[in-house]
Design a protein that fits this description.
- The chain is α+β, with helices and mostly antiparallel strands.
- It has two domains: 40-120, Beta Barrel (Thrombin, subunit H), CATH 2.40.10.10; 122-215, Beta Barrel (Thrombin, subunit H), CATH 2.40.10.10.
- Helices cover 24% and strands 35% of the residues.
- A hairpin with a 2-residue loop joins strand 1 (45-52) and strand 2 (55-63).
Length: 226
C-alpha cells in the first residue's frame, strides 16, 4: 500500500514538472509590446465622472501636462454640474472645465491641481497613420478603469475626419487614447456604431485624429496667455 502511494506521488510530481515549462513560456513580441505600452501609458490615463442633471456621465481622459491639464471628449462633460477625475493610482480630484469644442470636434480640456507632477501621454502624428496598422485603446468601459483592448485601424474617413477601428470601445471609453505600437496617442476615442443604440460594441468605433486635438490644445494655451 505504501509503495503504491509513493508511486502515485512520484507520478504526480513528474506530471507537474512536465506542465511547468508550458506555463512559463516566454512572452512573444506582440504581447511584450502590449505590456510595455500599457505599463508606460496607463498612469497618464484617468477616469472621469461628470455629474449632470440626468445622472453621472462617465468617460476617460488623457493627462497632457504634468501640472494637471487633461484632454477628454466634450460630450462626456456636457451639462455637467461638477467633474471628478480618478487617477490610475486611485487618487480623486475635483476638476474645472477649461475649454470645450462643439459636437463635430468633441474635445474638451479639464484642469486639476495635483499634489505632485503627473506622468503625461506622448503625442503621435495622425497624418501618417495607415489602414491595417495595429492600435491599442485604454479606457473606462462600464466603470472597468484601466482596460486595454487592441485592434487595427479599419478605415480612415477623410470626409468626416475620423479614424475607424475595431479595437473594443464601449460606453465609458470616450476621451481615452487610441495608441500606436510605440505608445504614442494617434487619436481620441469618441464613439461606436451599432444597431442597438450604442449599448454594446460590435467592432466599429471612431476616434478623433490627435492632430486635431494638438491644434485645440495649442489654441487654448495661446488664448490663456493673452
Amino acid at each position: 500500500m505504501i509503495r503504491k502511494i509513493l508511486i502515485l506521488a512520484i507520478s504526480l510530481i513528474a506530471g507537474f514538472a512536465n506542465v511547468n515549462p508550458t506555463l512559463a513560456r516566454p512572452l512573444d513580441a506582440d504581447e511584450q509590446i502590449n505590456i510595455t505600452v500599457y505599463e508606460r501609458i496607463n498612469p497618464a490615463i484617468v477616469s472621469i465622472d461628470a455629474q449632470t442633471s440626468d445622472g453621472v456621465s462617465a468617460g476617460t481622459g488623457c493627462i497632457v501636462t504634468s501640472d494637471g491639464l487633461i484632454l477628454t471628449g466634450s460630450h462626456v462633460i456636457d451639462g455637467c454640474k461638477s467633474v471628478e477625475v480618478t487617477m490610475a493610482n486611485g487618487q480623486v480630484y475635483k476638476a474645472d472645465v477649461v475649454s470645450k469644442m462643439g459636437k463635430n470636434k468633441d474635445l474638451a480640456l479639464l484642469k486639476i491641481t495635483p499634489k505632485t507632477q503627473l506622468q503625461t501621454i506622448k503625442f503621435g502624428d495622425s497624418q501618417n497613420i495607415k489602414v491595417g496598422q495595429k492600435v491599442l485603446a485604454i479606457g473606462n468601459p462600464f466603470g472597468f478603469s484601466g482596460t486595454l483592448t487592441q485592434g487595427i485601424i479599419s478605415r480612415i474617413d477623410y470626409t468626416k475626419n475620423k479614424i475607424q477601428t475595431d479595437a473594443a470601445i464601449n460606453p465609458g471609453c470616450s476621451g481615452g487614447p487610441l495608441l500606436n505600437s510605440s505608445g504614442e496617442v494617434i487619436g481620441i476615442n469618441q464613439s461606436i456604431y451599432n444597431p442597438d443604440n450604442n449599448i454594446s460594441n460590435i467592432g466599429i468605433g471612431f476616434a478623433i485624429p490627435i492632430n486635431d486635438a494638438k491644434k485645440f490644445i495649442e489654441t487654448v494655451k495661446l488664448s490663456q496667455k493673452k
